[in-house]
Amino acid sequence: MFWSLFWKEWKENLWKLSLCGLVSIAFVLMLFRIRLFPDSANCIAISFVQMLAIPVIYALDIFSGEMSNRTIHLLFKIPVKRWKIFFSKYLVSIAGMALIFLVSGILMEIVSQGREAEAGMLFKMNASYGISAMLLFSWFCGFGAQSRSEAGSMTAMFGVMIGWAIVLFWATMCEVGWALAFVPYHTIFYYYGTYGTVNPLLSPGLFQMITSQSIATVVIVSIACYRFVKVRRYL
Q1: Angstrom distance (rounded) from CA 235 to CA 68
Q2: What's the whole-model pTM score?
Q3: 178 occurs within a structural domain
């Protein structure tokens, strides 16, 4: 039954994968062929837009779509645990985002042909933005698991993005090193090293970053699952 739910979500979200994938491929081919800017700058521009846009598109109706269309009543009547319904939605979204960043990163490497950057650099750079995008989406789920409208979902997603940007600014300015390890954007800046902090020692190590992000993600996804499971049967 879980795989049936997974397949259902995959088919319903296929338009998101197609839209984001085609737009990403189009911009990669256009910018890397025109070459108005260095390949690394093009990679940063494309990856940054992907990081901001793709989580919003996937978060837009992942929960609110079921509630606004009242199809959530049908889902809850299926003889399957509610947490499985949640994870079918969550995992399909994460898989879709990962696939988009994977394809765009590989395409950047193929089109650039290593002319301005060493092999694998553009792929790693794009992947770091992809990880941040998936972390942002995970945090959205914690706040938007009970969203009843697309507007509410969008507000929650932008709230997550802006909120973590504020935390990043505060932690950097106040030199709170431990807080930086929990910021989803940290995976981007880790690629560039200390990213201009007042004290270079503030930049958390790789082990600390992985541990902190893993713990935070498990906690927030667990909260999101709990909130979804507790959605009232009749809304």
Answers
A1: 9
A2: 0.89
A3: yes
